[in-house]
Amino acid sequence: MSLIWNNNISVSYFGEAQDSVVGITISGLPAGEYINSDEISRFLNRLSLKCLGIGKIPMPRIMSGISHERTTGAPLCAVIRNQKEYIQEDSQPKNIRYGHADYTGAVCNRGYCDTEKNSQTAEIFTLPLCFAGAVCGQILERRGIYTGAHIAKIHNIKDNPFDVVRLSRDAVLSIRFKDFPVINDKNGWLMLNDMTIASESGETFGGVVECASINVPSGVGSPVFSGLANNIAQLLFGIPDIMGVEFGAGFAASEMLGSQYSDKAYTTEQGYSMTRTNSHGGILNGISSGMPIVLNAAFKPARHGSKPCCIVPQAVVYVESAVNIALLSAMLDYPNFC
């Protein structure tokens, strides 16, 4: 089992579900970057959703890599109190739940995986992921690059989509600190009501998160295996319950004619090459085009009876964090970034 994502930036998780703390080490961050701890707290507190009964989020304790609010160039290590710490109820072995990660983990590890403690679940690493995303996001935003996400859909209720051509900084940031991360608050209330009804009956929902990054310059990334979309998707699939990722028009492109899908280019007054539509989602052949990078991430329902009944509201922060990490890693190869 690998708990390391290794690129220009390396992200390494440590800990298990039964441990009192879990943690993360981030290597490759540029030295001298100002990191505001209050901003990290605000970013992570978005995971606390009072409307869903999700309480206070434990804050990370930074062990190394930052001194006097500046990155030192050494690996940044942080530990976080484990919200999912395992408490043994009895000594009797429990049955493996087929159709759940208990079964696949047991098979993968030849029966030695501790299924009672569920020690290999990705869920316990969502908070370390968000910590890394908060740090990387601050570094990007000082270069004018902003990433934001919202709930695109829960069950069969949809939010308004981003304007994928003329997406502004204010449109990205306006959702970030809402009590419920949607663009259209009326649709958000409908989602909450649907989730309340589902929770009372023990049912669960999946949904979709839409994420966008603006002001990413053209020319970031590379073709084939190290493409920008490849790296973003790899981090996204480290998030629990994610089932699919699409960029731009995504699967709908398969139903389009070539004339419908093609994005017509033009040159702005400032001399930048842009497109009038954004079917390609801001990435062409693994390389950024200068248009907003836009993606959708689909999540399956949690197990029947799980609390909360839907992880999609919190997954908004997970997705945003993964994109921040992948973008910063790719941007470190961009001329004059640091």
Structure characterization notes:
There is one protein chain. The chain is built from eight helices and 16 strands. The model is unreliable at 86-91 (pLDDT under 50). It has 338 residues and is of the alpha+beta class. The two termini are 33 Å apart. It has a single domain, classed as 4-Layer Sandwich (Chorismate synthase, AroC fold), CATH 3.60.150.10. The radius of gyration is 20 Å and the shape is globular. Strand 2 and strand 3 form a beta hairpin. The longest helix is centred in the C-terminal third of the chain and has 20 residues, at 312-331. The strands form five sheets. A five-stranded antiparallel β-sheet has the order 1-2-3-7-4, covered by helices on one side. Strands 9-8-10-16-11 form a five-stranded antiparallel β-sheet. Strands 5-6 form a two-stranded antiparallel ribbon.
Secondary structure: number of strands: 16
CATH topology label: Chorismate synthase, AroC fold
Q: Percent range for helical residues?
A: 25-40%
Largest sheet: 5 strands, antiparallel
Content of β-strand: 15-25%
Would you tell me the structural class of the helices and strands?
A: alpha+beta
Low-confidence stretches: 86-91
Q: How much is the average pLDDT? A: 90
What is the CATH class name? Alpha Beta
User: What is the radius of gyration?
Assistant: 20 Å
Succession of helices and strands: EEEHEEEEHHEEHHEHEHEEEEEH
